[in-house]
Amino acid sequence: MTSANLNLLIEAGTDFSKSFRLVARAGIVDLTDWVFAAQVRALPGSTVIADFDFELRENGTIAVMSLDNATTAALAAGRYLWDLFGIDQNGNRSRIFEGTVTIQNRITVYV
Asked: Which end of the chain is less congested by CB atoms within 10 angstroms, N or C?
């Protein structure tokens, strides 16, 4: 499977989430036994800037990747790279998404 390009915008200090489904010829893929990993880096092989958390919803058909507001508040504004890998129940690894991630500074700071 060839990865799809998906560019993200994350606003610093906010809760970020993005949901997705995988669809095959037979229909929507059950993601229940999948393992996901996604990271943000300045360049391939450089230090990890952020690791996304994952949660499954709707009987394992929707995966939600997220970063909480404390994590996004600590991110420096700029443009970075990210990708998402999935490992299915048979151990097959796939790069599902790849793209850029833009971190945008916030104006309002509240306690």
From this structure: C
Q: How far apart are CA 7 and CA 81, in angstroms?
A: 9
**Three-state secondary structure call for residue 103:** strand
Q: What are the sequence ranges of the domains in the chain?
A: 4-104
What CATH code would you report for 4-104?
2.60.40.10
> What does the pLDDT profile of the chain (111 residues) look like in tens digits?
689 999 999 999 999 999 999 998 889 999 999 999 999 999 999 999 999 999 999 999 999 999 999 999 999 999 999 999 999 999 999 999 999 999 999 888 776
| CA–CA separation, 95 and 2 (whole Å) | 7
Distance CA 66, CA 109 (A): 21
Distance between start and end Cα atoms, the chain: 45
